[in-house]
Write a structure and sequence with these properties.
This protein is mostly helical. The chain is 54% helix and 0% strand. The relative contact order is 0.18.
Length: 125
């Protein structure tokens, strides 16, 4: 999913007046968290390379977000939760954040199952 696709889907599902620039910042913060807490704590499998990521800007609309399908829906839930939080809509925030946390956890578990933690070595018995 691209940055612009996540923003467009969130805007369609939850019309709002929050700027595109703010939504890009929210997506950037989330992907920085994902990179630091999940991707960088594991070794990459053969053929994989570490993503070059230092954040998104207004020029990043065509950039691919870090988390692939089928987990990329987390970005829409994340944006929805942030919109509701800043609009002081606690019920909407709780629902969207719960959906976000569910998909985030599913991605983290999948990634943990398919990548060796950094600082470990394979041991063959």
């Amino acid at each position: 999913m691209k940055v612009k696709e996540a923003i467009a889907e969130a805007d369609e599902l939850k019309p709002n007046v929050i700027s595109q620039g703010q939504k890009i910042k929210w997506l950037s913060r989330l992907d920085l968290r994902i990179k630091q807490n999940i991707l960088d704590t594991h070794l990459y499998n053969e053929g994989e390379t570490a993503p070059e990521f230092s954040g998104y800007t207004d020029a990043s609309l065509e950039a691919d977000l870090l988390v692939p399908e089928p987990y990329s829906e987390m970005y829409v839930h994340w944006l929805s939760a942030q919109i509701d939080y800043y609009n002081m809509e606690p019920d909407g925030f709780n629902a969207a954040n719960g959906m976000f946390e569910s998909v985030y956890t599913a991605f983290r578990n999948y990634y943990n199952q398919h990548h060796m933690p950094a600082g470990t070595r394979k041991t063959y018995y």
